[in-house]
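User: Hi! Is it possible to get a structure for several chains at once, not just one? Here's what I have:
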Amino acid sequence: GENVEQHPSTLSVQEGDSAVIKCTYSDSASNYFPWYKQELGKGPQLIIDIRSNVGEKKDQRIAVTLNKTAKHFSLHITETQPEDSAVYFCAASGSSNTGKLIFGQGTTLQVKP
Amino acid sequence: DGGITQSPKYLFRKEGQNVTLSCEQNLNHDAMYWYRQDPGQGLRLIYYSQIVNDFQKGDIAEGYSVSREKKESFPLTVTSAQKNPTAFYLCASSPDVNSYEQYFGPGTRLTVT
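Assistant: Yes, the chains can be modeled jointly so their relative placement is included. Here is the combined structure:
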């Protein structure tokens, strides 16, 4: 069935360093790949997304890359700050015309001051 | 102030009681979704609705029920048949099923003892 694998499950970096989170998906028909940031006790917030007709998208310190051939996509955060500490989820669009997203298991990012 | 609201933030119930979680959106979105989140895990889809008066089972619908009588409202009832109801419940909405962009509410933490 449809599946999204996310790695690593936890990531600890020093403030100012870069962080990279990777996801792989199983359904070759997936064409939408969002990333969410979830702070403790809150709902996930959409921070960046990419569609399959684009290989890379950037928004200030955050970038996402997509390799459709290999069926994987990654989130890159540069110049990390303590407020970047949160759980990050990737997702991939599910079967056609349902609007469903298949979520990865999440990555807990800790940015040490 | 547009967005998705979920109430209450915390909910406590005794085992054997049904409980209804509220989800309201004023974004004029067609599609709405309910997810369950357990500690250290990703989001699992309970039910979703693409349009008023229609809804579909997600991956873990057993023990839950929903209704979609109004576009802006998608309440979730956790029934006594749900074996392990204690969890963080998240509601999301999307402009339509073809966009896949989902926006989340703040969540309701349900504790059943």
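The CA atoms of residues 7 and 22 of chain B lie 5 Å apart. The longest strand of chain B covers residues 43-51.

User: Great, thank you!
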